[in-house]
Each structure stands twice: as structure tokens, then as C-alpha cells.
Task: inverse folding
């Protein structure tokens, strides 16, 4: 075993002795030991490249809200495709920010045809007429 591994092993043993089960894994001790040996001077996270993890900005919340206002039957996947956001971000916005519990095309209202709307209106008018004649009809 080389000297670097020996020191990392001793460090790991010392941490285990001091903190018991709450200590870092041995592999993490070796990783950190190597990083400091290569010149790292602090334990703070360095800058990250790419998109930020959190996409739940006010602007994105408003974009998802607008998409939902147009068509509430869209699935999370469809909203993600339309908004170009990550599916997990869309789900987080819908549940945490917009307080929506379930987005499922099967339980959302569907668009009715003209014939279906007319039929629904006729049934409602019949029920109202019956209720006027028989006030206890639903009771």
C-alpha cells in the first residue's frame, strides 16, 4: 500500500473511531483525501456547468399555468414537451406550486360534441321542470 493510501486509511479509521456509524464511507474519505492531495483547499461546492437543477422559477410556473388554462387534459409528459421543461420540474410545479393533485386525461372533462351538449341541456331542462312540479323529486 502506498503512503497516500495509508494516510487515507488512517484518516478513515480515525473518523470511524470519532463518529462511529455516522462517519463518511471509506470510499468518500479516499475521494476527499485525493482531492485535497491534488490541491483542493476547501470543502465548498465548485461551480457547476449546465442547467440549474431547479426549474421552478416564477416564469416557468406561469408558463405551465398558461398551458393548463388552455387544456387541462394534458399529461405531465405533454406539458413538458410543450414547455420544453423537464418532466420532474413540470410535476413539481403542478403539485407544489399550482397545488394540483392529479393530472390524468382519463378523469378530465372531455370536449362535448354539439349533439352531446344539446342532449345535456335537454336533460337538465327536463329535470328542472320536474323539480318545479315535484319539489321533493331529489329528496
Result:
Amino acid at each position: 500500500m502506498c503512503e497516500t493510501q495509508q494516510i487515507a486509511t488512517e484518516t478513515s479509521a480515525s473518523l470511524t473511531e470519532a463518529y462511529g456509524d455516522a462517519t463518511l464511507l471509506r470510499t468518500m474519505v479516499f475521494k476527499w483525501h485525493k482531492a485535497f492531495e491534488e490541491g483542493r483547499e476547501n470543502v465548498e461546492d465548485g461551480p457547476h456547468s449546465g442547467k440549474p437543477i431547479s426549474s421552478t422559477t416564477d416564469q416557468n410556473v406561469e408558463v405551465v399555468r398558461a398551458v393548463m388554462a388552455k387544456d387541462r387534459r394534458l399529461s405531465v409528459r405533454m406539458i413538458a414537451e410543450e414547455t420544453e421543461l423537464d418532466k420532474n420540474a413540470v410535476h413539481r410545479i403542478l403539485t407544489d406550486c399550482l397545488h394540483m393533485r392529479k393530472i390524468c386525461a382519463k378523469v378530465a372533462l372531455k370536449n362535448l360534441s354539439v349533439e352531446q351538449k344539446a342532449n345535456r341541456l335537454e336533460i337538465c331542462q327536463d329535470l328542472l321542470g320536474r323539480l318545479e312540479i315535484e319539489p321533493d323529486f331529489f329528496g
Summary: The chain is about 60% helix and 0% strand. The chain has three domains: 3-37, 58-97, 112-139.
